[in-house]
Amino acid sequence: MRHLKDKNIVLGVSGGIAAYKGAELLRLIKKEEAVARVIMTANATSFVGPLTFEALSGNPVCTSLFEKGGNASIRHIEWAKEADAVVVAPATANIIGKIACGIADDALSTFLLAVKSPVLICPSMNTNMYEKVSVKRNIDILKKDGYLIVEPDAGELACGTTGQGRLPEPENILDRLVSCLTPKDYKGKRVLVTAGSTREHFDPVRYIGNPSSGKMGYAVARAAEHRGAEVLLVSGPTNLKPPANVKTITTESAEDMAAAVFDHVKNADIVIKAAAVSDYRPKDVAKQKIKKGEEETLLVLKKSEDILLKLGKNKESRILVGFAAETENLENNAREKLIKKNLDMIVANLLDGKYSGFGTETNKVTLFFRNGDKEVLPLMDKESVAHILLDRILEINAGNSLERNL
Ligand SMILES: Cc1cc2nc3c(=O)[nH]c(=O)nc-3n(C[C@H](O)[C@H](O)[C@H](O)COP(=O)(O)O)c2cc1C
């Protein structure tokens, strides 16, 4: 999914040690097929040469208000008019102070006064500088003035100190940029998403599990957050980083997941259950590791609580969406689950292994609706699937009839 396709993005780079990360951010912005333009402060050019940004952006880099040639002298005003969004990364204490005070004494600060689009500021500096009262005060002023602040990470800094002040990874900055350009049609909605697998231990070191990577559920949580929802993610074990601005509860077994879901479901308007939950768990769990013994051994399983069934029984006005991963009889199994569990929509896919299902980047799903409709979606990345699910949920919420050519 190309979120920034044809969007006009201006990257401002100021003179911090993390200026080199600006180049990686620019590469990611270009990968999204955006039109990218770069404005550097004079001090930024001491860290990274403008040529790097020129080559990566495919556009001339603006480094001075008084450049010659073409429309260079009014470039900062033209670019300000055309910008869909601006990101300043890294943002030095100096440029933050200048923006807070309305100072316009170079190309970047003047451009920032002229621009009307959303502006993301990514502070990055030594921890003592970041914690200085004046810097905090300036950042607060920017927040009040409507700038979006991407808080710096904590960790080891280039200057040798450890603390807050490190520029977040470029992919996280890109995520915030995408978020700020996404229409907020989920504003005021509370969405609970489950994702990942479950692990049912039969001794302290072994369990029954499944290969769910959590990618589908995480994509739904991220997309809902981008669209302005308040999102709670209940996640079984995965290797994924929780999406920004999403409260995440991590669980291990189906029982843990059930407890977390039932603790929080009262606060949800929409529940999307993308986790692959084990139906059974070992009846007994050995206290110590089970030693190798007989040629054959027996593991007795007992049924776990059916989270979706219970959610369906206590549905109230909530919208409930389930997933069905099947190896056969996709349509029958999915329709049966939709009715039995009192769902509004079920997202069904055949586990074909290569492009669709567990661990893949893409998914090929069919949606089944309560009114009997079905919608076959082509193979697409999981984020695109997530956005279509969220579109359909809004339609269900609005009581729209789903009349499509299916
Ligand atoms: C090696 C070096 C690293 C620096 N790193 C940072 C930094 O990470 N963050 C910051 O706010 N200032 C940093 N500074 C100080 C800024 O370069 C200085 O405040 C400068 O005036 C910023 O100018 P600008 O905001 O116009 O780019 C650094 C300076 C030097 C010499």
General description of the model:
- The chain folds into two domains: 8-181, Flavin prenyltransferase-like (Rossmann fold, 3-Layer(aba) Sandwich); 190-397, Rossmann fold (3-Layer(aba) Sandwich), CATH 3.40.50.10300.
- The protein is 33% helix and 23% strand.
- Strand 9 and strand 10 (206-208) form a beta hairpin.
- The chain is an alpha/beta fold.
- It has helices at residues 19-31, 50-57, 75-82, 93-101, 107-114, 127-131, 133-144, 170-181, 215-226, 254-264, 307-313, 330-340, 382-397, and strands at residues 8-13, 35-40, 85-91, 119-123, 148-149, 153-156, 162-166, 190-195, 200-203, 206-208, 230-235, 247-250, 270-273, 280-282, 301-303, 319-326, 345-350, 362-363, 366-369, 374-376, 380-381.
- The two termini are 23 Å apart.
- It contains 13 helices and 21 strands.
- The strands form six sheets. Strands 12-11-8-13-16-17-19-20 form an eight-stranded mixed beta sheet, sandwiched between helices. Strands 2-1-3-4-5 form a five-stranded parallel beta sheet, with helices on both faces.
- The structure holds flavin mononucleotide.
- The site of flavin mononucleotide has 15 residues, from helix 4.
User: Which blocks of ≥5 consecutive residues have pLDDT under 50?
Assistant: 401-406
**Helix proportion of residues, in percent?**
25-40%
Query: Using only CA atoms, what is the Rg?
Result: 25 Å
**Which ligands accompany this protein?**
flavin mononucleotide
Classify the oligomer.
Answer: single chain
* Mean pLDDT over the full residue set: 93
User: What's the CATH topology label of the largest domain?
Assistant: Rossmann fold
Structure annotation, total helices: 13
N- to C-terminal distance? 23 Å
How many beta-strand elements?
21
**CATH class label of the largest domain:** Alpha Beta
